[in-house]
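Supplementary notes for students who missed Thursday's class. We covered one full example, reproduced here. Read the sequence, then the structure, then the short commentary at the end.
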Amino acid sequence: KTLTLETQVLTTFDWAGCGTSTLVSLTTFAGGTTAINGGSIATSGLAGQVFNDAVTLGADATLTATNLGAVTFASTVDGFRRLVVNTAGDTTFSAAVGGTDPLAHVETDAPGRTLVNGGLIRTASPVSQLYADPVLLGAETLFEALGGGAITFGSTLDGGFAATVNTRGTTTFTGAVGTTTPLVRLVPDAGGTTAIDGGSITTSGLAGQVFNDAVMLGNSAVLTGANAGAVTFATTLDGDKTLAVTTQGLTTFSGAVGTTTPLVRLVTAAGGTTAIAGGSITTSGKAGQGFND
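Structure (token representation):
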């Protein structure tokens, strides 16, 4: 059946699931608060689950929408609990997640897409954010993991907006970034590690790409700063792979390159400028280093 709840006060789910039957869809109205305390909600229809009011987690929760059903958070989500969303449809965060009370963990599964439109996802645990499906930005977004939690993009990341990733743990880009729709800017913060495993990162703004933490290449990669966007490595860069940087702006190596693990090859494209400020660049392949700018 379909369940629609309309109230401007508190809706509370204290039970796990929906008894022995799966709901077709579940909708809560704006103006109130939904407290998910029961551990799981499952729906089977395309409309899936739509939470139009603020959601608070009182227990770890798994929300499952089968048959391509959507799961939509139209307002805020808070509560120091784990949130797992399983759907082959769209998971949409339309407002801030963890803005008032950081979640312990946010995870979306591999099929489907995650649409981040609310500007903020904040968590606080060792394994904080895992997006196994493609992520699409609908607004400038801060992904933040307090306490050094990992943030992993297990598939692609796209959207014509800026993304800032703050964690003292590891930020992993497993898929291509900005291939379908270039990000305006990508900025991982200092204090952690960024693992580039997806082969390419493309940005379109002048600020381009600023890697404030140590970068490790897990695959050969092409970093493209379109529209003369800058590409900046503020600290070390390592990994036994090939790195090509393509921009007509400024490429800056502020830390040592290849000291821990030599790159196979390093290539910069013509038309820009490369600033070497880190003291050393070490490569291991026959092609070595090609500075075309």
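Commentary. The mean pLDDT is 93. The chain is about 0% helix and 50% strand. If anything here is unclear, bring it to office hours.
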